[in-house]
Amino acid sequence: MKDxxxxxxxxxxxxxxxxxxxxxxxxxxMGMDIRIKCTGCNHSVLIPRSKFDKRIKKVLKKGEExxxx
Length: 69
Description:
Elements: E1 11-14, E2 24-30, E3 33-38, E4 44-48, H1 49-55, E5 56-61
Antiparallel strand pairs: 1-2, 1-5, 2-3, 3-4
């Protein structure tokens, strides 16, 4: 299995699409749990990190780097 590296503000693809039809999610909070927001309807979901690691398919787009100032 590939090693998946994700960070805050990344756009990720999950294995199952959201009911609104979009399969792209933005990571908006990281910790023991990860909060992701649907890019289609802006619905947010809080998922335990262990479940998130199983459900993520790939990183679609990396978030903005804060170190570029």
